[in-house]
Write a structure and sequence with these properties.
By secondary structure, the protein is of the alpha+beta class. Helix content is about 40%, strand content about 25%. The model has no long low-confidence stretch (mean pLDDT about 90).
């Protein structure tokens, strides 16, 4: 009898935890929906397959987002914002059983001139530091603080030098450590490797405008 009660108690606990997680996620999505609605943006909190595909196309089908449109959890478009934005939360899983792992990304994207060279700006990792000790350093700028904090990879160092003005470097040093920034295929992408709490979305939504305001104006005339 005690064994059955124990099993029943564990089952009830698991069901309760699952219900709690679902409730928290429901509240988060309602808050996300309210945020974008209050801004006058379009929001698809339960997107159709067509809307998922359109959203993924709009942000350039980034390589991090495995499983394609099927992984899109929600998407929003701020067409009247300056600059205009697409925002997507995407999730996919790999492995099975105890080794199964879910990967989630939130990405904010705006269009930039298609002539801009592919460039990635990410925080320096331990692996980057080890490579540096072996003489394999990434692109170096005048700011030692920036070089210590960020790894820059680019198809065109001259473009990256013009893009990364001192003002932009200083601003990037103030951003959260899990932000990554990439220019590719005529798009500027700002993304984090997680689902984003509602209170952290506004800074991400403002990031493209902050970046574009701090870079060299001549880039837009190219």
């Amino acid at each position: 009898m005690e064994k059955f009660l124990l099993i029943g108690g564990i089952a009830a606990l698991v069901i309760g935890l699952i219900a709690l997680v679902a409730w928290v996620e429901h509240k988060r999505k309602k808050a996300i929906e309210a945020l974008f609605t209050s801004r006058g943006d379009s929001i698809w909190i339960k997107p159709t397959q067509e809307q998922k595909a359109a959203a993924l196309d709009a942000i350039g089908n980034p390589p991090e987002l495995k499983d394609g449109p099927g992984g899109v959890k929600w998407a929003a478009e701020a067409a009247t914002a300056k600059p205009p934005l697409w925002i997507v939360e995407h999730s996919y899983s790999r492995g099975a059983g105890k080794s199964r792992r879910t990967y989630t990304h939130t990405m904010v994207v705006t269009p930039v001139p298609p002539t801009w060279a592919t460039t990635a700006i990410t925080r320096v990792t331990l692996w980057n530091k080890l490579q540096g000790l072996l003489g394999k350093k990434g692109m170096q700028l005048d700011s030692e603080a920036f070089n210590k904090a960020f790894q820059v990879t680019t198809d065109d160092e001259n473009f990256a030098l013009v893009l990364l003005t001192p003002a932009l470097q200083e601003w990037l040093l103030s951003t959260p450590r899990d932000w990554s920034i990439r220019v590719t295929q005529g798009l500027l992408q700002v993304y984090v490797p997680r689902a984003t709490a509602v209170k952290l979305l506004p800074p991400m939504l403002d990031a493209p405008a902050q970046i574009l305001a701090r870079t060299t104006p001549e880039l837009f005339a190219a």
